[in-house]
Amino acid sequence: MGRTRNTRLEGVVQELGLSQRQLAARFRVIAAEHGATELQNVAQPYIARWIAGASVEGRAPYILAETLSRGLGRLVTLADIGLGTDTEPEPQAAWSDNTLTTLVTLGSTDMDKDRRRLLATSVYSVAALALPEDQWFERAMDRARMRRPLSGYVVTVQDVEDVREMAAIFSRRDQKRGGRAGRTALVAYLRTDVADLLSGRFPSEDIRRGMTSAAAELAYLAGWTAFDGGEHPLAQRWLTIATNLAEEAGDAPLAGHVLRAMAHQAVDLGKPQEAVRLAEASLSSRRYAQACWRERSLFSVVHARGLAAAGEKKAAVSALLQAERDLSRADTAEDEPNRVFFFAEASLAHETAAALRDLGDLKGAEKQFRHSVRTRRSQFQRTHSVTLGYLGAVQVQQGQLEAACDTWGQALDAMTGVQSGRARETVVQMRRALSPFRNRQGGPAAELDARTRAMLNVG
Q1: pTM (2 decimals)?
Q2: Domain count along the chain
């Protein structure tokens, strides 16, 4: 079979107005900037073959997109030049220094229903959880400083504050209503406004770092809300790009925060060893050392969750005690990032309960879940409903059917208006736990089962 000519690439090259020989020369310069020594032999015949339809492999597609972006003064994505796939690039390519291109490409995938559906049916990749070497992260700031602007807009301190304000709004909405509420607006803002700002000119290093950090928080929220919505392959990719951006900003605690989220996802998906490894990365050196006490506690308790799921009881208990100590040192007067506003006594109790449950201590788990329910503030409706769901599950495991039905009834009440895949999953688990008792006519189990059927639209 003959090759199919890449008319998209051909059109963008024609728009640039350079000869293929000149384009190849620019390509080699940018490849050298990125240390892509394997591409130093790219010359005019390569460009001609790529336009004719030959495959573009390795790092070459990303270098080519960046070369064209710089030449045209606008962002050119892989899809723009016919080198994108129907979904986002393979997970192994996620740890890329082409952060801006990856962000825009992923945002486009997320906003396109058909491409997003294809990605949703792919698998959560354990291979993609393999982190680059520490030196790769340590060089992230230098790589970002070298990135040339794609527009003449000069980014201001006010621009940074505006993006942080939007991140705070989306974060609070997620905590109250769940990850599916307002998520389209979040991704659209990130894909357009924020990407444009990242493409601009930074008058100082502080402003560059501030804008990159703010963008990382939004990318983290895009990942976290996808995770809460049950779209795990999509979440995995967003959390990866968020880690990249945080490291480019030199914001070590934020990078730790995102790695902690990746560990949390791995625990929930039954990958305890990967969860422990990711949690340990969040705790490493500057990520933990530079974090405020509240955030340190969050890192530690998720580490405990991974250890508990892996069956490492002694280490898990030690990590839980560390999380308690860290939170006890948190001070509201301390300068804390907005992203940890949700993590307080109730959250620590919830995660502690989940760890104890996984260690087989059901009584201890029930006590901690109850404590979380008592101390949870009203604005955290989504998490409150999930906590109640987990509490009921622990109660029924101990033979407390009536108490579990009462707790689950409260959970269903709390889910009113919540749009969360994790909340919905607790309802699915309720139905499974209630299955042996459904035929008891007129009892609390039968009444609750009817409510869960209605919520899940099950006939």
Answers
A1: 0.82
A2: 2
